[in-house]
Write a sequence for this structure.
C-alpha cells in the first residue's frame, strides 16, 4: 500500500496521480480514518465540554 | 510562396521570443512574490513573540526579532549564499554530478566582488539570481525567527544577533546544501527527501534553539525550588495567536518558493514544475496538503489542550509534519499525520519543560521535534519513491530519512550549543539578573509600548521575582 505506486521507480513512467497509496485501498482507508477522527473529536469535545459546563448549570 | 514561408517563420520566431519573455517574467515574478509572503512569516513571529512577552519585555523582544531580520539579509549576501552553492558534496567542496555546486562554482556566482559580482546585483541578462537569493534569504530569516521566540525575556541583543547569523547564514545553509540541493550528499547517497524543509529549516532551527536554551537557562521565576514549572503568561495572547496565523499565511510563500517553475534554462522541465530535487510537483498538491495539514494539526491540539495558543501551534506543527512529503502525500493521509502531530505536541513540550528547559513559545517542539517526526514518517510511508529526477535515481528509505534526521539534529544542536557556550563565557549571552527583574524595556528601550493606565513595568512579575 505504501511506497511508489508504479512498478518502476522512475518518474519518467508517471503521467498522472503520484501520491502514496494510489491504486490501492489506502486513499479510501485514510479518508475514512480522517472522517472518523473528525466525528470522534466532536463527540469527545461535546462530552468533555458538557462535563465542564455542568457545574455552572442552575 | 517562399515569401509567405519566410513571413510565417518570422512570425513563429516572434511568438517564440514573446513566449520566452512571458515565461521568464512569470518565473521572476513567481519567486519575487514569495519574498513578501515570507516576510509575513517574520511579521507573524514578531507579533507572536511580542505577545508572548510580559509587558516589561515586549519592545525588547520586538527589537531583537527585527534586528535578526536586518542582520540576516546582509550576512546571507556576504557568505550564506556562497555556502549553499559551495558545499553540497560536503568538504572540501568538490563539484557534484549536476554541475551546479562546488567551491569553484560558488566562487563564480555567489561572491559580491570580482567577476561573480555580476550575479549578485542588477543585471539585465540575469532575471533569476536576485529572486532566488531573496527567497533563500527569507528561509534564513525564518530560521532566526524560530529561535528568537524561544529565548525571549533574558537574552542579550548582540549575543542573540550573533546566534541568529550563525543559524541563518551558516547552520541551516549547510543543511540545505546537503539535503536540498540536487548535488547534496544526503540526497545523492541516502535518498533524503525533505521537500518543504521540515528537517533542514524547522528541525535545524528548533534544535539550534535547544542548544542555546541549555546555556541560556530559564527565566527568573519559571521554575520553583523543587523543579516544578510555573506558567509565565505573555501580556497579549490574542496578538500571539494572530501572529501564529500570520506565520501560516507566510508558509504559503515559503512552500511556493520550494517549487521550481518550468521553461527556464535553470528549470528541471520545459513543461511542468518540479521540486528542488527535480521530482514532479503541482501547486494543487500544496494546496491540498497544506490545508489538510493545518486542519489536522489544529484538531489534534484542541483534543488535548483547548488552548488557542497550542491550537495555532498545532496548525504550524500540522504543516511541518507533512512538509517533507507535501509533494506526494494523499490529503487524507496528510490530515491523519498532522492530527497525530497535534496530539503529541503538548506532551513533547511538557517533556522538555520537565527537564528544566524554558522554551517560552514551544519552538523546540513545534519546529524541532515535529520537524524530525515529519522527516522520519516520510521514510515510513514513501519508501521506494525516487528522490531525484533521472534514471537510477536514489529512492526514499526509512534508513535514509533517519540519517537525514540525525544530521539535521546535529547541524542545529551542535552549533547552537557551542556558540552559545562561547557567548556565555564571554558574558554576552544573558542579561544581568537585576535588568531581567526590572524588565528589558526599562533597561534597553527608550520608549514605551503602551500608554499610561496599563500596568507599569515591574508590576507583572512572575512567581519568585
Amino acid at each position: 500500500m505504501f511506497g511508489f505506486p508504479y512498478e518502476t521507480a522512475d518518474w519518467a513512467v508517471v503521467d498522472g496521480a503520484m501520491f502514496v497509496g494510489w491504486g490501492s485501498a489506502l486513499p479510501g482507508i485514510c479518508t475514512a480514518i480522517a472522517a472518523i477522527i473528525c466525528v470522534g473529536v466532536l463527540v469527545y469535545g461535546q462530552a468533555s465540554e458538557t462535563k465542564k459546563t455542568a457545574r455552572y448549570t442552575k | 510562396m517562399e515569401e509567405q514561408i519566410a513571413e510565417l517563420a518570422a512570425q513563429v520566431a516572434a511568438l517564440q521570443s514573446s513566449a520566452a519573455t512571458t515565461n521568464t517574467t512569470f518565473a521572476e515574478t513567481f519567486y519575487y512574490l514569495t519574498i513578501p509572503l515570507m516576510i509575513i512569516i517574520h511579521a507573524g513571529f514578531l507579533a507572536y513573540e511580542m505577545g508572548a512577552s510580559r509587558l516589561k519585555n515586549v519592545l525588547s523582544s520586538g527589537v531583537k526579532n527585527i534586528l535578526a531580520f536586518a542582520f540576516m539579509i546582509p550576512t546571507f549576501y556576504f557568505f550564506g549564499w556562497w555556502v549553499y552553492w559551495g558545499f553540497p558534496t560536503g568538504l572540501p567542496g568538490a563539484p557534484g554530478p549536476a554541475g551546479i555546486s562546488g567551491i569553484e562554482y560558488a566562487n563564480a556566482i555567489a561572491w559580491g566582488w570580482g567577476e561573480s559580482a555580476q550575479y549578485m546585483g542588477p543585471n539585465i541578462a540575469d532575471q533569476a539570481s536576485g529572486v532566488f537569493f531573496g527567497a533563500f534569504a527569507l528561509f534564513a530569516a525564518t530560521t532566526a525567527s524560530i529561535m528568537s521566540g524561544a529565548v525571549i525575556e533574558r537574552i542579550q541583543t548582540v549575543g542573540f544577533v550573533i546566534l541568529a547569523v550563525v543559524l541563518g547564514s551558516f547552520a541551516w545553509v549547510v543543511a540545505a546544501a546537503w539535503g536540498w540541493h540536487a548535488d547534496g550528499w544526503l540526497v545523492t547517497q541516502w535518498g533524503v527527501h525533505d521537500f518543504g524543509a521540515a528537517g533542514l529549516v524547522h528541525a535545524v532551527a528548533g534544535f539550534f534553539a535547544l542548544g542555546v536554551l541549555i546555556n541560556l537557562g530559564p527565566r527568573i521565576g519559571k521554575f520553583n525550588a523543587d523543579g516544578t514549572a510555573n506558567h509565565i503568561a505573555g501580556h497579549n495572547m490574542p496578538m500571539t495567536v494572530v501572529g501564529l496565523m500570520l506565520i501560516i499565511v507566510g508558509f504559503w510563500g515559503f512552500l511556493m518558493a520550494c517549487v521550481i517553475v518550468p521553461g527556464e534554462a535553470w528549470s528541471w522541465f520545459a513543461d511542468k514544475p518540479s521540486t528542488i530535487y527535480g521530482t514532479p510537483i503541482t501547486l494543487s498538491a500544496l494546496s491540498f496538503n497544506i490545508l489538510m495539514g493545518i486542519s489536522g494539526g489544529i484538531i489534534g491540539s484542541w483534543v488535548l489542550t483547548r488552548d488557542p495558543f497550542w491550537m495555532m501551534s498545532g496548525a504550524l506543527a500540522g504543516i511541518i509534519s507533512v512538509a517533507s512529503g507535501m509533494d506526494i502525500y494523499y490529503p487524507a493521509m496528510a490530515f491523519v499525520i498532522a492530527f497525530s502531530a497535534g496530539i503529541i505536541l503538548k506532551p513533547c513540550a511538557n517533556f522538555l519543560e520537565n527537564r528544566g528547559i524554558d522554551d517560552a513559545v514551544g519552538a523546540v517542539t513545534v519546529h524541532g521535534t515535529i520537524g524530525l517526526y515529519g522527516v522520519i514518517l516520510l521514510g515510513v510511508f514513501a519508501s521506494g519513491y525516487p528522490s531525484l529526477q533521472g534514471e537510477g535515481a536514489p529512492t526514499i528509505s526509512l534508513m535514509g530519512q533517519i540519517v537525514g534526521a540525525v544530521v539535521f539534529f546535529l547541524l542545529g544542536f551542535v552549533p547552537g550549543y557551542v556558540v552559545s557556550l562561547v557567548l556565555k563565557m564571554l558574558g554576552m549571552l544573558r542579561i544581568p539578573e537585576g535588568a531581567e527583574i526590572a524588565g528589558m524595556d526599562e533597561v534597553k528601550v527608550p520608549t514605551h509600548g503602551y500608554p499610561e493606565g496599563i500596568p507599569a513595568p515591574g508590576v507583572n512579575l512572575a512567581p519568585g521575582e
Summary: Chain B touches chain A through 28 residues (CB under 8 Å). Chain B has 15 helices and two strands.
